[in-house]
Design a protein that fits this description.
Rossmann fold; globular; binds NADP nicotinamide-adenine-dinucleotide phosphate; 7-stranded mixed β-sheet; 2 domains; alpha/beta; 6-stranded parallel β-sheet; 9 helices; Quinone Oxidoreductase, Chain A, domain 1
């Protein structure tokens, strides 16, 4: 490697995982309100694969470095930054809206997207919990207004977003019902705080869910993390004035049972985390930080890859989220220090 170069993964045209290449690119120069972060850990999210495949269109710099999430330490700071060299930080929201992503040794990040990394929290854990934790927090609190004592149903509680929703809802004093694909994942959901877990492959959800709801009382917040919701299953189990959160499934056109929806005074709320303002995301991150520090939020790591193996990491994310073919539990990380 020559002076001023860094290891990075990138692509210049969208397509299958193989379009991702790796090698050396110039170290970016931070702008006045940016810091240069030495990336210790970056995490993969489904949106990275949609952008790479060309299914979600953002303006992309050429070459484009993928990745939204990162954690590491500040090695240089622009003149208008409060962050200082040596500060440990984490953040998300990179690789979007024309910004470069995080799958590189160094990343120039506007300081509005960075949060202090508590001493007791590892860079791997912070990166693993970044986008999914902010998403879960925005959905439960900004959008659904979750209150202590309410009942939350999370469809997909062993997934990246789902397991964050389970942990945050439990910590907020909610009763939590969720679904998992195997007894082992059900055990992990219970460990995260789920009170009831339905094995969606082995059990009949339409039978089990009403049985559980007869014990917990009706559902106040339904957090749907699947791309195709079963609204005929969901709506009859909702409490009056319950809130249904949709945050996945750009191509979904589900049937909508309007009658049972409006007679319960229900609300359907859609959101994408990257639409939230920097201030809204910071509020979520500040609470996540205290939960990371005291162990109420423990993001799991499922697999670790080097920058050179970023294409393999993308393939695994697609197998997990799009094809539901992977049994891994926890986030997929890229570790720039792994050669
Ligand atoms: N709107 C936003 O801001 C936002 C933010 C983040 C993510 N998303 C979207 O949200 C979705 C989830 O993301 P993620 O990162 O959590 O993905 P993920 O980690 O791959 O989790 C998906 C989970 O869905 C579960 N699942 C699959 N089929 C199921 C079924 N039939 N019934 C119940 N559960 C099932 C799987 O559980 P098992 O492993 O137990 O089988 C898997 O863990 C993606 O579509 C993503 O694009 C949106």
């Amino acid at each position: 490697m020559s002076e001023g170069q860094m290891r990075a993964a990138w692509f210049s045209e969208t397509g299958p995982p193989e379009v991702i290449r790796s090698g050396f690119l110039p170290v970016p120069v931070p702008g006045p309100r940016q810091v240069l972060v030495r990336v210790e850990a970056a995490a993969l999210n489904p949106i990275d694969t949609y952008i790479r495949a060309g299914a979600v269109r953002f303006p992309l710099p050429t070459p484009y470095i993928p990745g939204c999430d990162l954690a590491g330490s500040v090695v240089a700071a622009g003149p208008q930054c409060e962050l200082q060299v040596g500060d440990r930080v984490w953040g998300s929201n990179q690789g979007l809206f024309g910004r470069q992503g995080t799958f590189s040794e160094f990343c120039a990040v506007d300081q509005q997207w960075l949060y202090p990394l508590p001493d007791s929290v590892s860079a791997k854990q912070a990166a693993a919990g970044a986008l999914v934790g902010i998403t879960a927090h925005l959905g439960l609190f900004l959008h659904a207004g979750l209150q202590a004592g309410e009942t939350v149903f999370v469809n997909g509680g062993s997934g990246g977003v789902g397991s964050a929703v389970v942990q945050l809802a439990k910590a907020a004093g909610a009763q939590v019902i969720t679904t998992a694909g195997s007894p082992e994942k059900a055990r992990l959901c219970r460990q995260s705080g789920a009170d009831h877990v339905i094995l969606y492959r082995a059990e009949n959800i339409d039978q089990r869910l009403p049985e559980i709801v007869s014990q917990t009382g009706p559902i106040h917040v339904w957090f749907e993390t699947l791309r195709m919701p079963a609204l005929d299953r969901c709506i009859p189990q909702m409490a009056m004035r319950g809130r249904i959160i949709f945050m996945a499934g750009r191509d979904s056109r589900p049937e909508f049972p309007l009658g049972p929806f409006y007679v319960r005074d229900l609300r359907a709320i859609g959101f994408a985390m990257f639409n939230a303002s920097a201030e809204e995301q910071r509020q979520a991150a500040t609470e996540l930080n205290s939960m990371l520090a005291d162990g109420r939020f423990r993001p799991a790591v499922g697999a670790e890859f080097s920058i050179a193996d970023a294409a393999q990491a993308h393939l695994l994310q697609e197998q997990k989220t799009i094809r539901n073919e992977s049994s891994i539990h926890g986030k997929i990380l890229i570790l720039p220090g792994m050669i």
